[in-house]
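**User:** Here is a favour to ask of a fellow structure person. Please take any protein you like and set down a full record of it. No explanation is needed for now; the record alone will do.

**Assistant:**
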Amino acid sequence: MNTIYAEKRESGYWVAGTRVSLDSIVYAYRGGQTAESIAQSFPILTHEHVYGAILFYLENRQEVDTYLQNSKADYEAIRQMAHTADPMFYQKLANAHRPIDSSRQ
């Protein structure tokens, strides 16, 4: 019996039969989370889904790592374009995140 635990759809990898990205499982696994804690984070997934996704990653590590690296680079390029397109927005956002100086009240 050959069970498929992950599948490539469109431009990404997904836990088979779900809308959970393989990315989220792999990043949690690489971050040191156990399969049990990952399954708790995604109630739609069974332990078999999580272990199967991890197995898929380990068996296809080079391909998945390349995909993750390319996805990160694509994200950074889009983020940089957004900053360039509207720098004032991002400055206002940065200002909003600064702590309020209580001595000025």
Q: What stands out?
A: Residues 61-85 form the longest helix (25 residues).
